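User: Predict the structure for this protein chain, please.
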Amino acid sequence: MQTKNVAKKKQFDIGWFVINNFGLLMICLMIVFGGIFANNFFTLGNLQNLLSQIVINGILTIGFSVVYIVDGFDLSQGNVLSACACVGLTVLNSTHNILFTFLSAIAVGVTFGLANGLIGKVIKSDGSDSYLVTLAMSLVALGFAYIWTKGLNIQCDQEMTAFRNIARGKVGSIPNTMIILVIFLLLIHFILKKTTVGRKLYYVGANRKAAYMCGINSHNYRMYAFMFSGFCAALAAIVMTARVGSANPMCGNNYETDAAIATIVGGNAPGDSKSGMLRALFGILCLGLMRNIMNMMNVDANVQTVVKCILLLVALYALSLKKNWKGGRGK
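Assistant: Here is the predicted structure, written as structure tokens:
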């Protein structure tokens, strides 16, 4: 009987480890799979390509993760990115001033984030309401981008090489954009884990009503999270336009889906004190590796979408098991 109990306990611990480290284990599996089935996977050129590919989704995932921690969901990120890119590139072509380009894009992104937060505050929204609010704001951002550009593609002026070098330049073998992502990731990690503001965000995500009873304005902190997500959309738009040299109303289409997948696959959950930028990084790398490997294997784009969605469903199931298992461990 004692032997059975020991074996059962050991199996339980292994299962908990797998569920609790789903994102990290998926990264390990991706690396092994890529090394076996994808030619030239372990090359410097492919590594540089991978690092460049994950930056835009990485920046969006940082914003999405913060919103998710406060029990929100931002479906507007992709179209807000498009709106920021169109406005920013128009300002760049008109003024040839990179600072004005940054400020205009950030102003648009933060305004849409503020609108998401204010509407949520007015209707006293919970986590489920944020789906509908941000979906509506996503359509507003898409319409704004079409009105701003008249449905046309905007090209960056050729003489603006300094702006293009934001994304095309390198420090040694490391792309500039990857350095931007790492610094941004570390900064937000510090804010979440080491500041009063960060701790309050976790409190709001864990129990909004209890946080309010403790003197925390829950709706305001949710609004700050959405504003930060809009800021991230603007920063991602700047990186995208610097990289490709153009913008159009559909350039951010479905980017919010990738950010959501990376956030959840990494293991983030509303109010979970262990959620944060480390888990967001796991999700970013996991999704980036998957896309990189499938591209190297010439997998059809539609099949890639199906595979990503399957990964999301598996991650959601793992998150559900984690919640139930955690409750069982506490009994």
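The CA atoms of residues 140 and 284 lie 27 Å apart.
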